[in-house]
Amino acid sequence: MACASAALNKMKFYLFLLALLLPLYAFAAEKESAYERVMRTGIMRCGYGLEMPYSYKDAETGEIKGFFHDYIELMAANLGLKVEWVEEMGWGQFPTALDTGRIDAWCTTAWRTAARAKLADSITPITYQPLYVVVRASDKRFDNKREALNSADVKFVGVEGQIELQIAQANFPQAKTIALPQSSDFSQAMMDVDAKKADALIVTGVIFAKYDQANPGKLRRVEGIPPVQVSGEGFAVKAGEHTLRRMFDNATMELLETGAIDRIVKSYNMPEGTCIVNNPAAALFR
Fold this sequence. Notes:
- By secondary structure, this protein is α+β, with helices and mostly antiparallel strands.
- The chain contains ten helices and 13 strands.
- It folds into two domains: 135 residues, D-Maltodextrin-Binding Protein, domain 2 (3-Layer(aba) Sandwich); 102 residues, D-Maltodextrin-Binding Protein, domain 2.
- It is 38% helix and 23% strand.
- Helix 3 packs across helix 9.
């Protein structure tokens, strides 16, 4: 009887110990890093935004295309990974998507900002993009007068969650801002300037060139004012994923140093002075 009681107590002890250890095991499993997940599955789950020429959907096939798409696919192939373009989202949403593990990487360009750095780590940029102040073609108020833009009488427009509005606020704090919904296409901001709903906006050279080609003579860059910012264009991973970031950094540098990025960018016929490849010797490849 004593032996049976001892055995029962021993069994209870082991069951109690098992009950303690199971949650710890589950917690450890939940803490798998993005790097470990990518290496285990061989799959890089990409979130993306739609913005010509970085990444966009083919109107006929629905396939993702663009020079960032081509870069990500080539880099992943060199790493022995498969890319899954799992979720389209806005630029204001991707840091949270990275932080919660919905995606392994944000695979469209993302400029570095202090606010984003809390949740997202940027990869080495492959290109640099100048940002300009754009106004109506007939509006001469600000030519050679940068300070005139910093006035409560001036309205800047942009898309909520995107960086252009933050750049406007940082450079022209006295000016007013109009935020369009996150679902808005950036071309709507340019149309609002044309329609006199706003006076100005901050826009990249490549996006403005695309709009100007479709709407010639409607808007123009303010004359006599240099770019308000020149931003590096790279993709992003979750903050703290140092091993994953280093792997992508090294794979990206290989593509920059071999001229692969230069060839990809060149194939998209970018307007002059936009999407400047992040390699001082890039001209040697041309």
